[in-house]
TrEMBL record, chain A:
It comes from the Bacteria. Keywords: Germination, Membrane, Transmembrane, Transmembrane helix, Transport. The chain crosses the membrane at residues 7-27, 39-58, 78-96, 116-138, 147-167, 187-204, 216-241, 270-294, 306-322, 334-356. It comes from Desulforamulus aeronauticus DSM 10349. Belongs to the amino acid-polyamine-organocation (APC) superfamily. Spore germination protein (SGP) (TC 2.A.3.9) family. One of its GO terms (cellular component) is membrane. GO terms for biological process: spore germination. This is Spore germination protein (Amino acid permease). It is found in: Membrane. It is a multi-pass membrane protein.
UniProtKB/TrEMBL annotation, chain B:
InterPro entries: Spore_Ger, UPF0353/GerABKA_families. Pfam families: GerA. Coiled coil: none annotated. The keyword Translocase does not apply. This is Spore germination protein KA. Residues 16-41, 67-114 have a biased composition (Basic and acidic residues). Belongs to the GerABKA family. The chain crosses the membrane at residues 417-439, 484-503, 509-530, 542-562. Keywords: Membrane, Transmembrane, Transmembrane helix. Signal peptide: none annotated. The keyword Membrane applies. One of its GO terms (cellular component) is membrane.
From TrEMBL, chain C:
Keywords: Germination, Lipoprotein, Membrane, Palmitate, Signal. It comes from Desulforamulus aeronauticus DSM 10349. It is a lipid-anchor. It comes from the Bacteria. Belongs to the GerABKC lipoprotein family. Residues 30-204 form the Spore germination protein N-terminal domain. NCBIfam families: spore_ger_x_C (TIGR02887). It is found in: Membrane. The keyword Coiled coil does not apply. This is Germination protein, Ger(X)C family.
């Protein structure tokens, strides 16, 4: 139906990794530090484990439906009406994520690099990039991820190395300072949302086979979890808990610290290159996911005609919130909480239905056998 | 209107109908009749046919041996006779069929008609076939080449000194044929030495081919198409009276360049020879590098008018058959009037003409072609073009030079890293300069920023205009330096750049920092080895200038993002353009860095070659041996 | 035909899109370098009537152009102006009433806050600086003895063309001598927000020719060469740039409470572990009228041990110094192993004495912990709340702080030993 092309292991990992890394450049690490104080790094590890578990749900679901994507699987399991509803929820999730991300990345770029440029211009640029990218198709997006991951890793590595000279180890004390359960109840659950599982299930065919799908996702999530943990540790060590929780763009603030001698200072714009790239890619991946879910749900031949409509929708939604704070609150208090439904609850439900169905079938089979 | 046609032909061409007034083949009418006859009487016994033929054949012996068409003695010359003479000329294999003809005609003697006039003969003559009548042939040749007007083609009429003498003519092209060899190998033997043999054995044409002509390549052709193709390529065609075939003697010889240094792809270390404009020399140069029976050269003719040879060279036990099929399919499917250079051929072969990146690699170095053929690629050589096309190609191939391979791995890696830097500088620097100056002023050290600002203080233009002025004038110098005639060309480029730059700075039109930016960019773009890639970077540079001026680094990233998509969606003959990197495939570490030669164990994975192994895992046999020796002792 | 129509449609789409983009982008937000005035240094002062006075130093870019031409080099390379307004941020707008260009703070290297202002609290400046995108957290922030306006107006670097470079270079000397701490906005913010200890800032000032009495007094008091009682503004000297960088301003929370002299600063840096190297002069233990000069650097970070005991906290700090001889005036052979060890012992005692004096001073003058010992105290704590509600100043004031110095003079310089000259007057 929709020709998505295939990609190999490296491209798959890069794609999911970049998608998962996208939020570390925004306010999330700061929120994490605010929540977890100097235990935030441990909570980041915890988040990683939770994400792996979430992905495991998707893996077990897709293991039972290896010849379809999650879109067809949900229709098979829930029937046509419920299935379509479920798929529309998936699509809605990605559309809202895209809208929120366009705005957040737009605001981030504006704050960090282009203070006097109108926000709409930056958002148009971001949307346009996403459309162009989706027009080329998933295979190309994956390849571009593979190319840019080199530079992104390079940027992260250089930043981490450069920040080491500002590290003050005593910032990490007192160790075990906060009750983890309390943190989770207070708001850590806002940071465990994982859209990559759903994304990977939507583009399941492109991974080639289920084993590839499994290892790609697990590796990508682990690597990004490690990077996120390292970043949070460095934030705590270099800025201290209080300063780190004040920041709007902690990664950017960290890169403002970097200086090698008198010449190479104030290099945050160089790091801007890497994180803007991640933003562009994340936006195009999300736009792709939302259009392709719609196209698959309605059994269209091609997702491309939907691109304009969906991106326009996302753009219009994203321009509605009046200020940065609103979008931040929307994101943290509503999106990341309600987003758990399509990313965890629904796949889990599907898994359960799938298990029950199978048992039913088995029972039917055995009862039929018994009757005979 | 038939009468008018007849009249016109009679007026325009007046052959001696006494001698030539017979036809060789049946008219369409007769042909139809024949067909009918054949259907009716297919079961006639052969023997009786033969007997009848013998009876109806009162011909002089020696003439029949010469296989010359008989002269028609009178108007009564029967149709039967003609068919028989014709039949005798035919090769023995088709004798049976011919006999049938004769037999048929015998049966239709009642329907005798007048022999055809010469113009009728001409009319009935299949224009593609060589006629036994010299004059018909000559007429046909004159028609094909528009001879009295077309001065390049020369018809030399002469008589072959056999007994009895036979008229003949030779046609050759002035300019592409070697006069000396025509004189020595065509005219001299035919006119002088052909009477060495007292008698002529067998067919005259065979005799001439076997015993008279001493050229090294002599072919016999029926069809004008082949003959014309040969003559167009410098051969000499000899038409002999009474033979419906012509001899094509290879007398190619034209002025051409010798093998010269590579001009555009120079290396310090390595062979110093380049292709020239002769296809055969070029294939020879490649064969000189790969002396293998497995190296196949296929020839395809391209161009309805130009008829140029295209050679496809590959190692047949290595190359991916699908790739080969695709290359041949593309070349053979070309329906063009003419292809003048491999540059045009390249454009016909590539799949995305509007994509900025070149999808075929052209090189003038035989060693480079050989290297790529060894790795499983295919070389396409067009006759008359000193560049070979290598397909498929990746961006990394285009960024490599042979120096990288010929030098030791560390040196090669160093060269490549330098070139990587140059690659990025050549399209990003002006854009980045603009985005720094306009948006990210905090990036540069304070002193440098103040210097830049100070230098810009007296410049009346915005920096975007300044950069564009400078870039355009640099491109102008580049283009003009190339086009300036003669020896001043090189100097005018440098002098122009120096003077222009100096004057522009003194006139406060541009700032001196910008001169550095533009000069470094220009230099770097020259460091990119492949000319087409250079071009793509030069053009992209302007896009980055605008993006950088509009949105700073965000614009640059936008540009990089789109450019990456353009490049990674691109394929060259099925191979992704950024192949060993994305999609990530196994490589021998020969992408950005260069591993030592002995670790090139595999051919590039993306080519899917038949033989994956390039060399055994231990290519240096002595390493194994010496370690063995150590173990023993 | 349909294909052609499609193609035309596509082109129309593309052209429309391009028009849209070009109209919407159109170089917005780009600022040419000649639209901007680059502010190199800012000074904040309190004026009468609750007014704020802000002084800025703007680079004159023309002076930096190398393109010869008319009078570029003759122009002064920077210009200092000041404006009064009820709010410090209002002054930014007032500057443009007489300044032709938009002010750009992206290359501001130096923030100077006047003494009076600093005593009222500096937090409002710090948060504003860290909120403002153009201003940099790693720019230096110094407290000026006197008025910041005077400092910026009178600061005329002799060797450098711009104050920016002057600041960068003079901060390098801090690493060599250690008489003033290099404090960036980030550093102060970090101490202020993350820690309970007292922030410090470098002290700068203008050499005052009028206050000779104080200089005289200090000169008279100075007998020990290890002591350097000078602070910015009172260094006994003649000539040179009027700006001086020496000493430290000490804060309680964000309010300035006192200053430390040059040698006190050095001791403070040593105890903090931030001293890179310094030249120490001590009186020769054997000859009273001769001095010994050694160039020492901090061999490694100090070891700090904190013990919580029933009667209070005990802090034990060991600092390590190592270096080489610069001068031995007396000609005594201190290069020998035994003599050197004795000298090192004496020297260590002197440093420890200085440290004790400084710690005593901080407790006496109610400065609070300027050595950031609370960083190490964190390890003793259990929960975040405990740390948040820690009353560190009290603990510090009651703590018993013990400093041990370990000196190792590793190299004698180029001389292996000192031999006495052959004197004509024998003793």
């Amino acid at each position: 139906m929709i020709r998505e092309g295939k990609f190999g292991f490296a491209e798959g990992v890069s794609l999911l990794l970049i998608s998962n890394l996208a939020t570390i450049y925004l306010v999330e690490p700061s929120v994490a530090v605010e929540l977890g104080k100097n235990m935030a790094w441990l909570m980041a590890l915890f988040t990683m484990v939770v994400m792996l578990l979430e992905y495991w749900i998707i893996i077990s679901l897709m293991k039972r439906h290896q010849d379809t994507t999650i879109i067809e699987a949900s229709e098979q399991l829930l029937g046509p009406y419920l299935g379509i509803l479920c798929n529309l929820l998936f699509a809605l999730y990605f559309i809202v994520e895209e809208a929120i991300l366009i705005r957040r990345y737009g605001e981030a770029l504006l704050t960090a690099a282009l203070p006097t440029t109108p926000i709409s211009v930056i958002m148009v640029t971001l949307t346009l990039a996403a459309i162009i990218s989706c027009y080329y198709g998933l295979e190309t997006i994956a390849r571009v991820s593979r190319i840019s991951i080199t530079f992104i890793f390079g940027g992260i590595f250089i930043l981490f190395m450069a920040v080491i000279s500002y590290v003050d180890v005593t910032n990490l004390y007192p160790l075990w300072s906060v009750n983890p359960l309390k943190i989770i109840a207070e708001g850590q659950y806002k940071l465990i949302i994982l859209s990559e599982g759903l994304l990977a299930a939507v583009i399941f065919h492109s991974f080639g086979n289920w084993h590839n799908f499994r290892s790609v996702g697990l590796l990508a999530i682990s690597v990004s979890g490690i990077i996120r943990t390292t970043l949070i540790i460095l934030l705590i060590l270099a800025l201290g808990v209080e300063l780190a929780s004040e920041k709007v763009l902690p990664f950017f603030n960290l890169s403002r610290l970097v200086s090698f001698g008198r010449f190479f200072q104030r290099a945050e714009s160089v790091f801007l290159l890497t994180w803007a790239m991640v933003g562009f890619l994340k936006l195009s991946i999300t736009l792709y996911a939302s259009t392709v879910i719609l196209a698959r749900t309605f059994r269209l031949q091609d997702y491309r005609p939907l691109l304009w409509a969906v991106s326009l929708l996302c753009f219009s939604i994203s321009i509605i919130p009046p200020d940065v704070e609103t979008i931040g609150t929307l994101n943290l208090n509503y999106f990341t909480v309600w987003g758990l439904i399509p990313t965890i609850v629904l796949p889990f439900l599907l898994l359960v239905v799938s298990l029950v169905r199978k048992r039913e079938r088995k029972q039917k089979h055995t009862s039929e056998a018994g009757n005979q | 209107m038939n009468w008018w046609k007849e009249l016109k032909q009679t007026l325009t061409y007046k052959p001696n109908s006494d001698r030539e007034g017979f036809v060789l083949k049946e008219t369409p009418k007769e042909r139809a009749m024949l067909k009918k006859d054949r259907q009716v009487e297919t079961d006639q016994p052969e023997d009786s046919n033969a007997a009848k033929e013998e009876a109806a054949k009162p011909q002089p012996k020696n003439r029949s041996r010469l296989k010359r068409p008989e002269r028609v003695t009178g108007r009564e010359g029967s149709k039967q006779k003609q068919t028989k003479t014709e039949e005798k000329k035919k090769e023995p294999s088709s004798a049976k069929e011919d006999r049938n003809f004769g037999q048929k005609h015998e049966n239709t003697t009642t329907d005798l008609r007048k022999p055809l006039k010469i113009y009728q003969a001409q009319e009935d003559q299949d224009p593609d076939q060589v006629s036994p009548y010299l004059e018909v042939n000559q007429k046909r040749i004159e028609e094909i080449y528009d001879i009295p007007n077309n001065k390049d083609f020369i018809i030399r009429e002469f008589t072959i000194a056999v007994v009895p003498p036979v008229k003949a003519f030779a046609i050759f092209m002035e300019g592409m044929s070697d006069k000396a060899s025509i004189n020595t190998y065509v005219l001299q033997p035919l006119m002088l030495f052909s009477n060495f043999q007292p008698t002529v054995d067998g067919y005259l044409i065979d005799h001439i081919e076997r015993r008279v002509l001493i050229g090294n390549q002599v072919n016999v052709h029926h069809k004008f198409e082949q003959i014309v193709a040969g003559v167009n390529f410098g051969s000499t065609a000899v038409f002999v009276e009474g033979c419906d075939q012509a001899l094509l003697v290879e007398t190619k010889g034209w002025e051409h360049r010798g093998i010269f240094y590579p001009v555009n792809e120079q290396v310090i270390r390595g062979p110093q020879e380049a292709f020239n404009e002769t296809l055969r020399t070029n294939t020879g140069l490649i064969r000189k590098q790969i002396r293998s029976a497995k190296l196949t050269t296929e020839m395809v003719k391209v161009g309805e008018t130009t008829h140029r040879d295209v050679a496809i060279m590959y190692l047949r036990d290595v190359v991916n058959p699908k790739l080969l099929k695709e290359v041949k399919r593309r070349i053979e499917s070309l329906q063009v009037d003419g292809i003048v250079d491999s540059g045009i051929l390249e454009q016909y072969l590539e799949e995305r003409p509007w994509n900025i990146a070149p999808q075929v690699m052209a090189t003038e170095r035989p060693d480079r072609v050989a290297f790529h053929i060894l790795r499983g690629k295919i070389a396409i050589l067009l006759d008359g073009s000193p560049y070979a096309l290598v397909v498929p190609t990746t961006m990394f191939d285009q960024l490599h030079t042979m120096d990288d391979y010929f030098l030791r791995p560390l040196y090669g890696t160093f060269l490549r890293l330098i070139r990587t830097v140059a690659f990025y500088i050549s399209f990003l620097t002006p854009g980045i300069y603009l985005s720094i100056v306009l948006f990210h002023k905090e990036m540069v050290p304070t002193e440098l920023l103040l210097a830049i600002a100070g230098a810009r203080e007296k410049v009346p233009f915005p920096s975007l205009v300044e950069v564009i002025i400078m870039e355009v004038s640099f491109e102008l110098i580049r283009e003009a330096g190339l086009r300036v005639p003669g020896a001043v060309g090189n100097t005018i480029g440098i002098v122009g750049a120096l003077i222009l730059g100096q004057a522009a700075v003194e006139a406060n039109i541009v700032s001196p920092i910008l001169i550095i930016v533009v000069a470094v960019t220009g230099l770097s773009s020259f460091a990119v080895p492949y000319y087409s890639l250079q071009f793509s970077l030069r053009i992209i540079r302007f896009a980055y200038i605008f993006l950088g001026a509009a949105l700073g680094f965000v614009g640059i990233i936008f540009g990089l993002f789109v450019q990456m998509h353009m490049l990674s969606s691109l394929k060259s003959f099925g191979v992704p353009y950024l192949a060993p990197m994305s999609p990530t495939t196994d490589s021998t570490g020969d992408v950005v860095l260069r591993k030592p030669v002995f670790s090139w164990e595999k051919r590039p994975d993306y080519l899917n070659t038949q033989q994956e192994q390039f060399q055994p895992n231990i290519a240096r046999g002595w390493v194994k041996e010496s370690s063995k020796r150590k173990r023993k002792s | 035909m349909r294909d052609k129509a499609k193609e035309v449609k596509l082109w129309i789409k593309i052209v429309c899109l391009l028009c849209l983009i070009s109209t919407s982008i159109g170089c917005m937000g780009a600022r040419e370098t000649d639209q901007l005035a680059f502010v190199l240094a800012i000074g904040f002062d309190k004026a009468d009537n609750n007014q704020q006075e802000v002084t800025i130093t703007i680079a004159n870019t023309l002076a930096f152009s190398s393109t010869g031409g008319s009078g570029g080099q003759d122009a002064p390379s920077y210009e200092t102006v000041s404006v009064k307004a009820p709010s410090a941020w209002e002054t930014g707008s007032l500057f443009n009433s007489f300044n032709s260009r938009e002010l750009a703070y992206m290359h501001t290297k130096l923030f100077v806050i006047g003494e009076e202002t600093a005593k009222d609290g500096i937090e409002k400046y710090l948060t504003a600086i860290s909120r403002f995108r153009e201003a940099r957290g790693n720019s230096s922030l110094y407290i000026c003895k006197g008025k910041a306006k005077d400092f910026l107006m009178n600061n005329k670097p002799v060797l450098e063309t711009s104050p920016a470079k002057q600041i960068e270079l003079i901060e390098n000397t801090s690493k060599i001598i250690g008489y003033f701490p290099v404090t960036t906005v980030n550093d102060i913010l970090k101490t202020l927000k993350n820690l309970h200890s007292s922030p410090i800032a470098g002290l700068v000032g203008i050499h005052k020719t009028g206050e000779d009495e104080q200089v005289e007094k200090l000169l008279r008091e100075t007998t020990d060469p290890l002591q350097e009682p000078y602070y910015a503004g009172v260094v006994p000297r003649t000539g040179g740039n009027k700006a001086e960088f020496i000493g430290t301003a000490v804060f309680n929370d964000d309010k300035m409470v006192g200053i430390l002299s040059g040698s006190e600063t050095r001791t403070m840096l040593l105890l903090q572990g931030d001293l890179t190297s310094s030249m120490y002069n001590i009186r020769d233990p054997k000859y009273d009228n001769f001095n010994i000069a050694v160039n020492l650097r901090q061999a490694r970070k100090p070891e700090i041990r904190i013990n919580r005991e029933a009667d209070g906290v005990k802090i034990e700090e060991t600092v390590f110094l190592e270096g080489e001889f610069i001068a031995i005036e007396s000609g005594e052979d201190y290069e020998g192993v035994e003599a050197k060890r004795q000298l090192e012992q004496t020297f260590s005692r002197e440093v420890e004495k200085q440290a004790r004096e400084l710690i005593a001073k901080t407790k006496e003058e109610n400065y609070g912990d300027i050595f950031q010992y609370d960083r190490y105290y964190r390890k003793e704590l259990r929960t975040w709340e405990e740390w948040k509600n820690l009353n560190w100043k009290e603990i510090y004031d009651e703590a018993e702080i013990n400093v041990i110095c370990k000196t190792n003079i590793r190299r004698p310089g180029l001389l292996r030993q000192t031999l006495p000259i052959l004197r004509t007057e024998k003793k």
